[in-house]
Specification:
Layout (H helix, E strand, L loop, with lengths): L1 E4 L6 E4 L3 H23 L9 H4 L1 H20 L10
Antiparallel strand pairs: 1-2
Length: 85
């Protein structure tokens, strides 16, 4: 997942890499739920999992980091070089 903010040459990018393993955890949970269903009913399940959909719960964190960084830049209250205006 990659989030960009800023305008023109001042545009910065914030990347988070935990969506890949998180999606794997979501997929494992779906597989376990399907196995439990098969044990109860004897019928199988079809699992259709999108990494993007699985990452929606963690997207809020990235958006908050970008929003806080943008507010700090606009207020001139940052000393971090990559966020400085």
């Amino acid at each position: 997942m990659r989030v960009s903010y800023g305008l023109g040459e001042d545009q910065s990018t914030y990347s988070i890499s935990f969506t890949d393993p998180y999606s794997g955890v979501v997929g494992a949970g779906a597989a376990l739920a399907a196995l439990a269903y098969r044990r109860r009913t004897g019928r199988g399940q079809y699992i259709d999992l999108s990494e993007q959909e699985a990452a929606v719960p963690v997207a809020g964190y990235a958006l908050m980091v970008v929003a806080v960084a943008a507010i700090a830049v606009l207020a001139g209250r940052t000393r971090v070089a990559r966020f400085a205006a």
